[in-house]
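Before the break, one more example. Copy the sequence into your notebook; we will annotate it together after we see the structure.
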Amino acid sequence: MRARLVSLTDIPDIICEPWVDQSRRPFVSTDGVYIPVRKGYPSTHLLPSRRRSGRGYQKLGDALIFHGERPTREDLDEVRRRENPETIYWITGHEGVIRRPNIIRLEGPGGVVTHRESGIIYRLDVEQVMFSQGNREEKSRVSKMIRQGELVADIFAGIGYFTLGMARAGAEVHAIEINPVSYGFLEENISLNRLDGVIRAERGDCRDCISGLYDRIHMGHFDAVTFFKVALDHVHLGTVLHVHMLGDRSEEIRSILCNSEMDASITMHKVKKAGPRTWHMVADVVIA
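Here is what the structure looks like once it is written out:
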């Protein structure tokens, strides 16, 4: 891995720099933090690969999460030796509008975890709200598009997955969340990241809470297309909408735009694999 060695205190200042490879995890050592470097930018160090064989897992704070098939005893033994987690979970999927995880605690006390990603602090209860680390690159991509002072609506804000990064990048964010548990963590995470002055959090249904016109509307839910017409009532010329979905539903978006007598450019982005032959995708819609 090509990397630059920085001090821990430098992380907040450099994490959004163009040379940082957001798709790879930093490596922390007694010397400092080795930040992965994107191709085409100079590096100061070359670290050996940290790839491993065996079952994949997700790490959130001091909790470890398996997805898919139930982990075997060998899987559990291996991650205990490697990570020494406080709690181990198995998630079989998510359900409902609020995407509550179907989760089984395999061992450990459970409870709230503190997770750090790209210089942002997230507090959450793994048993009650979801957290997808596969969205890390998409969070970075959207945050880099932010213009200083633009007004953003994040209408499925959750615990602040995208809200916090957009606010740190210079936006004034109206963060809307319907799930009371997620909303509680959203408020906590806003304070933890010292963003109280630039984020206005509101609990409720986005169809009732969204108001006025926005420069950007983030719609981070797989059923976001069904809310697209609502969002169009709050756009102006040049407004950018980020519409998440499973598979390519751009034709549905074009149909809604046509029926609303509006024009826009649509660019599709793949975020991550969400299942067999199914991609989590985002449509960037720019109102023309």
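The chain has eight helices and 17 strands. The longest helix spans residues 180-192. Try to locate both features in your own notes.
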